[in-house]
Design a protein that fits this description.
heterodimer, A: 269 residues, MetI-like fold, 2 domains, globular, B: 351 residues, OB fold (Dihydrolipoamide Acetyltransferase, E2P), 6-stranded mixed beta sheet, 9 helices
């Protein structure tokens, strides 16, 4: 049997330490959560509502913003335009901003005095302390994940295939929906899942926009600051489990969709 | 009829310049050039995937220089086929018909007809990811031909196929052309050009340097580059003078060529086809022949038998049959005579 070199051993030890750093706190949290406490939390209506709110608001935000983000990603992958690098920098900005600062910036935009806030007021509702405001905060900090993944996906589609489709008489819209989008689908789905996951785990920006209704990260914070670690832990475990289930389901769905495209395309459009 | 008038296009450091080209209806035009010569770029300009910086393109006397790709009626089959990997063979061939929003029945009928013509009916429901190069090529052809293009552009269609598949596809392309399909085929392969072309253009460094029928181009190459394409390896830079009323060409190594009936050109370069050179053990009796004594320096197997290189001051490349090798008892280092008539010499412009 081939023996590992010293270098490989060092790399393996360092990798294990990093992995342990991620797993240990989570495992500790799961181990330290008693079954009784956990079952009580599962039955807690406030926890239910907050987890459900987190999931559907993040999903809706991802879905709505993908309508603009996906074509935008195609534009970035395919077209040359002035200040393209600058635009790319703006997209990445929410990743480097402190999220509370992002929340403050957004609050100025969506409060009653802000442009979007005024528009919402005309429609008869207030974005602050409202699920739509939470959705905007989640989208603000998580959009780069979708745009960047989708852009890489479109860039990996051979341009020649799009040109071939144009040569075969398809218009630009048809080419986008039948060639570019299906071929970049896997990266787009990955970006979609990442945006959704990042959105639902957001605390800093959301807490500035809406303390109530309470999304799960805010609820966990509130339980921790009001009642302590033991009270916050079961809610955290429950939220993590539900979020994991949701993410796995989304991954499985996207895999099935990919298989379907390969086998049954003749009937899909 | 396709007409390109003074087409110029800069692509980074590369320039397609002063391209003038006419391809009549029903023509099989082969554009021959090395990789990087600009042949694919020229096809893309005709197809509308790129636009020229200056110049005009006409198809059937209608200017299409800036016309949208979708409206040109020019079909292109790419070198890498560009078959859609997420669709079945049926999905690929049906793609242009669906783009035109034809009804399902008409699509199914047309796809079946096209697939039968290309002999790929049995793989219609297969994913394209599992097809061979030859099958992919046929799918790409069927998909383009179903659009009934006025002009079919083929980018190195034979380059990735093995010999038997190549022959099949050549037959298919010849038949298509016989049925009236106008074809422009770009290739780097001289063999493809002579076996398919009715007319040939040679492109080099973004310029079409010679054009004409296959015989015109390869029997009278206008320069060294075209001659090399025709497989000619015997080139001699000479100074031409007149001796006793006859032209004589002398190389740097003092080899003297008798040039009876040869018209000198500027910057004279003599070329001689390998097949025209005869090897003998004795000096030829015919004094009209050019004959030089030399030493065999290399013998290597070639497509036609053996290639023998003889150093007679300058190197002569010759092709002989294997049976003749035995008769002449040729071995490396042996002294032999090379001879050829003056009419085997072509004088071209050395520049």
């Amino acid at each position: 049997m081939r023996r590992n070199s010293i270098f490989t051993w060092i790399v393996m030890i360092l990798s294990s330490l990093v992995l342990l750093f991620i797993i240990a706190p989570l495992a500790g949290m799961f181990i330290n959560t008693g079954a009784t406490q956990f079952l009580e939390t599962v039955k807690d209506k406030e926890v239910h509502q907050s987890v459900w709110l987190t999931l559907w608001v993040s999903f809706t935000a991802t879905l709505i913003f993908s309508v603009g983000a996906i074509p935008f990603a195609w534009l970035l992958a395919r077209k040359k335009f002035p200040a393209k690098n600058f635009v790319q920098g703006i997209i990445d900005l929410p990743i480097v901003l402190p999220h509370t600062a992002a929340g403050i910036a957004l609050l100025g935009f969506i409060s009653r005095d802000g442009f979007l806030g005024k528009l919402a007021s005309f429609a008869g509702f207030d974005l602050v302390n409202h699920p739509s405001g939470i959705a905007l905060a989640m989208a603000f900090v998580s959009l780069p994940f979708l745009i960047n993944a989708a852009r890489d996906g479109f860039a990996a589609v051979p341009e020649r295939l799009e040109k071939a489709a144009l040569n075969l008489g398809a218009g630009y819209t048809k080419v986008f929906f039948t060639i570019s989008l299906p071929l970049a689908w896997r990266s787009i789905t990955t970006g979609f899942v990442m945006m959704f996951a990042r959105g639902m785990s957001e605390f800093g920006a959301v807490v500035i926009i809406a303390y109530h209704p309470m999304i799960a990260p805010v609820l966990i914070y509130e339980r921790f600051s009001s009642y302590g670690l033991n009270y916050a832990r079961p809610a955290s475990v429950f939220f993590i489990l539900v979020a994991l289930l949701f993410l796995i389901a989304l991954r499985l769905l996207s895999f099935k969709r990919k298989v379907k495209y390969i086998n049954n395309d003749a009937e899909t459009y | 009829m396709l007409r390109l008038i003074n087409i110029n296009r800069r692509l980074g450091d590369f320039v397609l310049s002063d391209i003038n080209l006419e391809v009549s209806d029903g023509q099989y035009y082969v554009l021959l050039g090395r990789s990087g010569s600009g042949k694919t770029q020229l096809l893309e300009l005709i197809a509308g995937l790129e636009h020229p910086d200056t110049g005009k393109i006409f198809l059937d006397d209608i200017e299409i220089t800036r016309q949208r790709i979708q409206d040109r009626k020019v079909g292109i089959v790419f070198q890498d086929f560009a078959v859609f990997p997420h669709m079945t063979v049926f999905g690929n061939i049906a793609y242009p018909l669906r783009a035109r929003k034809e009804d399902k029945k008409s699509i199914a009928d047309k796809v079946e007809k096209a697939a039968t013509a290309m002999n790929i009916r049995h793989i219609l429901e297969r994913s394209t990811e599992k097809l061979s190069g030859g099958e992919l090529q046929r799918v790409a052809l069927a998909r383009t031909l179903i659009t009934s293009p006025r002009l079919l552009l083929l980018d190195e269609p034979l380059s990735s196929l093995d010999t038997s598949l190549k022959d099949d596809l050549k037959r298919l392309l010849r038949n298509l052309n016989k049925e009236g399909q106008t074809i422009i085929h770009v290739t780097h392969d001289y063999g493809d050009a002579i076996s398919l072309a009715k007319r040939v253009g040679v492109i080099h460094n973004g310029k079409i340097i010679q054009e004409g029928s296959v015989n015109e181009v390869f029997n009278n190459p206008s320069n060294r580059f075209v001659a090399r394409y025709a497989g000619i390896r015997n080139f001699f830079k000479v100074d031409i003078s007149r001796e006793d009323g006859l032209f004589v060409g002398v190389t740097e190594h003092k080899i003297r060529f008798k040039l009876n009936g040869v018209t000198p050109a500027r910057n004279n370069l003599l070329l001689i086809k390998s097949d025209s050179i005869i090897i003998s053990n004795e000096m030829p009796a015919d004094i009209e022949l050019n004959a030089f004594k030399g030493k065999v320096t290399e013998i290597t197997p070639s497509e036609f038998g053996m290639e023998v290189i003889i150093d007679a001051g300058d190197l002569f490349y010759t092709n002989i049959l294997t049976s003749e090798m035995g008769k002449l008892r040729l071995i490396e280092g042996k002294e032999v005579w090379v001879s050829f008539p003056s009419k085997a010499i072509v004088v071209i412009n050395g520049n």
